[in-house]
Amino acid sequence: MNLEAIQNELKKQKLDGWLFFDHHVRDALGYRVLGFKPTRHVTRRWYYFIPVEGEPAGLVHNIESAILDPVPGKKARYSSWQQQIDGLRALLNGRRKVAMQYSPLCAVPVVSMVDAGTVELVRSVGVEVVSSADLIQYFEARWSEAALESHMEAGRRVDQARRRAFEMIGARVRDGAPVSEYDVANFIRSEFERTGLITTDGPIVAVNAHASDPHFEPPPQGSAPIRSGDLVLIDMWAKLNTAGSVYYDITWTGVCGEPTEEMRRVFAVVRDARNRAVERVQQAVASHADIRGFEVDDAARGYIREQGFGDYFVHRTGHSIGEDVHGTGANMDNLETHDERRLIPWTCFSVEPGVYLPAFGVRSEVNVFVGDNDARVTGEMQKELVAI
C-alpha cells in the first residue's frame, strides 16, 4: 500500500478519506489497493479507514482481530452489533465525505462492491458516501513501463496470429477444403500457445449472421462453415504468459471474395466512427483537456446514428484494458452506463464500435493508450475489409 500516494489523491479529490470494508472476501479491488491478501476466511466484517491526513485505523471483530495486521494503524475491536456501530462512529469521527467501493445507481458496476445496507450504515453515523471509482482507476488501471512493453509485444504476436488466421481461411476456401468457425478459433488458440500468449477464453470467429452477435463463440459441434462470399469477423485478445502482463484486444472483419456494396458501406461507417472516437481522445489529451468515457462513446455513436445505423450499435464503444481484458478503468460508455470517469495518463482502453444487421455484423477494434501528453493506437488499424 502506498499511503502517501493515496493521501495525495484524496487531497486532489477533496475527500476526507477512503473507507474500505469487506465480508467474505467480496472486494478484491480493496485488497489489491491495500496490498495484502487475507490468510484465513473472512467471516466477520472489518473496516479500514485511510484519512486524507494522519494515520489509518481499522475496526475488526474480536474473533478475527488479526485480519488487518498486514496494514498499518491501530485497530479497535467489536463483538456486538451495537459495538460495531459505536466503533464505526469513532473511526469516522469528524469526517464528512468518504469514498467507498460504491457506485450511485450502479453506474460503474466494477466498483459496486459495498452492499446498500453497509452504505446506509455509514450514512447513519453522519458521513456522506461517494464513489471510489476514480480512486480505483488511479491505483488499479494505470500501467507501468513494463506493462506497456508487454502490451506492445502481445500486440505484435496477436496481429501476426490474426494475419495467419485470415490467410488460413483464404487458402482453405480457394482449395475447396472445409473450414469452419471452430476450426479457425482452434487455429488461433494454437498460434497463441505457440507464441507464448495466454487468454481466459475466446476467440470469437463469426460468419455472416453470427457476426451480428457481439459475444458469439463457435461451438465444437454445429459451427458454421466458411465459404466463398462469406463475411468473417474475428475478435481476439491475449497477453504474454508472464506475471504483470496486460492484454491486447482487437477485432477485424474480412470477406471471402468480393464484398457487397452494403458490406462496404457498413464497414466504412464503423471504421469512420472508430476514427472519430480515437481523434476525440487524441485532441483532448494533446490540449490537456479533461475527457470522460461517455464523451468518447458519444463521438462514435453520434456518427453511427447520423449514418442511420444507431439502432444497430448495441454495446458500449470500448472498455478499460489491464491484466484482465476488461479492466477497472474508465469505459467508453454512454449506452450501457453513463461513465463519467476521466481518461487519465498511463491507462489503456478499446475503441470498438459495431453495426449488427440481421444478415451480418461489422466491428472494428483498436486499443488506445493515453500517455502524459498524447494518446496513440498501439497496433495496426484496419482501413478496408480484409480480402480473404
Pick out the low-confidence regions: none
Average pLDDT confidence is 96
Helical residues, percent: 25-40%
Strand content: 15-25%
Rg, Cα atoms, Å: 24 Å
Count up the domains: 2
Can you identify the CATH superfamily of the largest domain? Creatinase/methionine aminopeptidase superfamily
Q: What global shape is seen? A: elongated
CATH architecture of the largest domain: Alpha-Beta Complex
CATH-derived topology of the largest domain: Creatine Amidinohydrolase
Major sheet attributes: 6 strands, mixed
Helix run count: 9
Give the CATH class of the largest domain. Alpha Beta
Would you report the number of β strands?
17
Output the structural class: alpha+beta
- Topology as H/E string? HEHEEEHEHEHHHEEEEHHEEEEEEE
> Numbering strands along the chain, what is their spatial order in the largest sheet?
4-3-2-1-5-6
Distance between the termini: 50 Å
